[in-house]
Amino acid sequence: MPDRRDEVPYVVVEKRGSGLGAFLGGAIAGALVALLYTPRTGDETKQEIRDGLARLREDADHRFNLLRTEVEDRYDRVREEVGERIELARGDVKHKKFQAEEAVKAGRAAAKRARAELEERLEESKQSYSRNVEELAETAEVDVEEAKKVVKRAVQDVKKAVSEAAED
Fold first, then answer.
1. 41 Ramachandran zone, left/alpha/beta (phi>0; psi -120 to 50)
2. What is the distance of C-alpha 49 from the center of its chain?
3. Taking the mean position of all CA atoms in its chain, how far away is CA 71?
4. Rounded Cα distance, 35 and 25, in Å
5. Which of 44, 76, 140, 154 is close enough to 40 for a disulfide, judged by CB 3.0 to 4.6 Å?
6. Distance between CA atoms of residues 73 and 71, nearest Å
């Protein structure tokens, strides 16, 4: 029968380090063990300790230099990448600024054209209105003159009818 703990998911976390601390700890432990179990004289042991420390120092310096070089390389790569991204962003900003300026120019030009067209239409409307008023005034004058003539004829006809009626 399966255990309930087998059904429960779990996570394994592994930490990864540079290994420098483990290396130094192992080197020191190895040196101490070698000192304790090696049958040598005091002077030989001291010399062996000095030689071991010198090798340890050289190896630590070498590893430190490798680490420093790696960090410097990564720093340079990140710095380059950031610089490239900044340049791309600047280019995008310049492009967007140019597009906005062009849009504003186009908008202003369109507004000027629309205003000029509107003013032209307004002027045409004024002229058309003036022409229509003048035509109506001329037509009204002609109509008034014709009406005067009709009235004169009517007056004459009435006078004639009155005089004929008076004679009869």
1. beta
2. 65
3. 34
4. 15
5. 44
6. 5
Per the listing, tokens 């791309």 go with 88
Q: How far apart are CA 105 and CA 165, in angstroms?
A: 87
The residue behind tokens 């186009």 is 106
Nearest to 63 by CA among 25, 15, 16, 21: 21
- pLDDT value at residue 24: 72
Asked if 24 contacts 53 with a C-beta cutoff of 8 angstroms, the reply is no
CA–CA dist 62, 60 (Å, integer)? 5
pLDDT in tens, the chain (168 residues): 555 555 655 444 455 556 667 777 777 777 777 766 767 677 887 887 788 788 888 888 898 999 999 999 999 999 999 999 999 999 999 999 999 999 999 999 999 999 999 999 999 999 998 888 888 878 877 777 888 888 888 888 888 888 887 776
Return the residue matching tokens 């998911």.
9
Phi, psi angles (nearest 5°) of residue 17: -120, -175
Tokens of 51: 């030689």
Helices marked H in the chain — which ranges? 4-7, 20-37, 42-167
